[in-house]
What does this fold into?
Amino acid sequence: MVLIPALPYEYEIPSLDRVALVIIDMQRDFLESGGFGEALGNDISQLQKIVPTVKQILDTFRDRALPIFHTLEGHQSDLSDCPPSKLQRGQNQLKIGDMGTMGRILILGEPGNNIIPELQPLANEIVIAKPGKGAFYRTSLESWLQEKNITHLILTGVTTEVCVQTTMREANDRGYECLLVEDATASYFPEFKQSTLEMIRAQGGIVGWTTTSENFIQALSFSGGYVKNNKLDMSFYE
Ligand code: TIU
It folds into this structure.
């Protein structure tokens, strides 16, 4: 069992074989100039700040050979999976499917739709393409989690109040115990991020828990030997 200091109270992972990392939409479309985020008029620098922290959490899961899911928001090139309401939304701005400086905006396979180079998935990590804001809507995520017997999800990524919160609420309704890593998630609007963290953990953890990357990484490193360079490192106990 691993106990992680968190809000509104300690988050308990019964056994590490029950936990998976979900990294939401750390894509060039949201973090780099010329993508969907900037096309919507947003300040992308807010999102770029969390990249090293997300990498640290990713490395923690990689070191322990725990399951890792990356999600990718994007649509088919013929836009058949994009409702007209989303295609038309907005005024005087680039829309889903329009040509941007990194290819067509929010279209799967376009350069801008890729995960940023710093967080590129490894071959054994699962990448879930999703047409919606939530990672459970019209995706294989739930069947993957069931197959791997996962009950506890550690969430990171962007943006806190849109795709991360939607996914966390979808997961919560399906019975998953969710922990959001505060400094590994970001919004274009810092005040929206703050409100989201507060609403998630309000009412006794109505949607789940939040913690810091330091709390999370420390709790895991104290929970037993960890796999380092593919060998079990027990030096902590020596
Ligand atoms: N616009 C915005 O804040 N977010 C999205 O459109 N997608 C995600 O959050 N990934």
Summary: Residues 225-234 have pLDDT under 50 and may be disordered. The chain has nine helices and twelve strands. The first helix runs from residue 28 to 31. Residues 25, 30, 40, 73, 133, 158-159, 162-163, 188 surround tricarbonodiimidic diamide (CB under 6 Å).
